[in-house]
Amino acid sequence: MAKEKSKTWDIPDLVDLEYFLSVDADIDEAVLVRRDRELYRSQLAQAVSTSRRDLLYRWLDLRRETARIEHSQPLPGEVIASVLRPLPMLLFILGILSGVGLASGVLIYAGDQPINLFVALILLVALPFLSALFLALLPALRLAVRGSFSGGFGVWMIGTLLTHLSQRLSGRSGDGRSKLALANSFGILRGRGRLYSGVIGWLAFRLMQSLALGFSLAVFLTVLFRGWVADLAFSWQTTTRISAEQVHGFIAALARPWAGLANPPYSYPTVEQVEGSRVFLKEGLQNLSSSDLQSWWYFLLWAILVYTVLPRLVLMGAALLGSRYARGRLTFRDARSEAVIRRMQHPLLHVDKGDETPLEDPLVEVISGSELRDKVTRIRALVPEELMTEHGQELWQGDLQREFNASVDAVIPVRIDEEEDADALQRLAGETSQVPIVLVLEGWQPCIIATQEYLKSLRRLIGKDHLLIVALVGRQDREGCRAPTSDHEFGIWHRRLATLGDPMLLVHNWSNRHE
Description:
Layout: H1 11-24, H2 29-44, H3 52-70, H4 76-84, H5 87-106, E1 115-116, H6 117-146, H7 153-173, H8 176-191, H9 193-229, E2 234-235, H10 244-254, H11 256-259, H12 271-276, H13 290-294, H14 296-328, H15 335-345, E3 348-352, E4 364-368, H16 369-375, E5 378-384, H17 385-391, H18 393-404, E6 407-414, H19 422-426, E7 437-442, H20 449-462, E8 468-476, E9 482-484, H21 487-498, E10 505-509
Parallel strand pairs: 1-2, 3-4, 5-6, 5-7, 7-8, 8-10
Antiparallel strand pairs: 8-9
């Protein structure tokens, strides 16, 4: 069977993904588990490609199909796509208008007042070239200094320009609900910018190149047209002691890239033409030759083509390739994407104790207790000592095993104090990132600053790519079982922990599935 082509993720797809993930945050976990498992079994399990990114993309497509049937308003990704499609062309046209305006202003020639050559070179060649050089070096500089291509600029562009344009568009055709969904999706996208900074940064880079390329092409074509239909005359003068030979040597050095393609004066003026185009204000123009004044036109055209147009074409190609590379590097290893993959691929398990009526639910897989550890993934759990004392380590191991459908490598008692838990946490630093770490906390207790600092310290130890799950449990019932955290208290914890900006932190509400 031929290998299926991997799905391509674009900005609208990421916006829709964040939108649906934010919607799922308000839905009961048990409902999400059954829904995603059913989607996987019925429509995704037989897919040719089983990669994480393709599986998540197909899940997103199914969610979008359902949303279009249930709601008449466009999805946030559709709104942003309607903005992104014409935006590069609009910026290109804006660049053309700017280039025509600047070149026309510089090339004002009244017949008795030649165009200042140095002004033309600075405005039409030097400044655009330095701008292109700066934009070419900026990504490498940011990558070397901060480890991020886009820095904050790409996220800023998504958070301002695209947000405002999209909200204006949705304000004409959408209701308050769709505008709120769009605003929330962009807010989450900015908050999780570290995950998508490469994609967003290259998009910003490509939009800038669309504007700059239009500007450079317009300047070149304007100079070409004006020089073709009118005799443009360029002259130079200076109060410093610069000779014509020095000016000729300077322009000859600038003309080296194209010197072999055309001979003087069609590549750059000769020494005699440079001397003949020099103006001495006290003498006027009566002693100047028109052919010498016109000889600079070819040099200016070549300089604009080589130093402004070609660099912009190269940078536009780099932007397209970089954007494609950044989209291909998306791994979706963050906590919320991990939760979706887990819900789809991990079956709902029921431990058969030998004395129960067999279940007939197609989504539930019945296994024996001895098979559980070998069949599912692994976790390592951190449980506060007071919870360990009142519930017992073996009971916690069994409850965690059933709660997460995963084998438990270890249940480690902790005191939620960085110094006192230093030895226990240090052992986690060398653990593989493939084994998630679960920290059990009481959800009815307030989320204090010390707890957030503890999570930051734990993150520094285990690394940025290690999945960290905060499992919030409620109070014990009469039978000694832990109940789920109330929706109100869970919402408070979820919002407080979201301020940490940790994409690999998953907040989980205890579901007490073993009941």
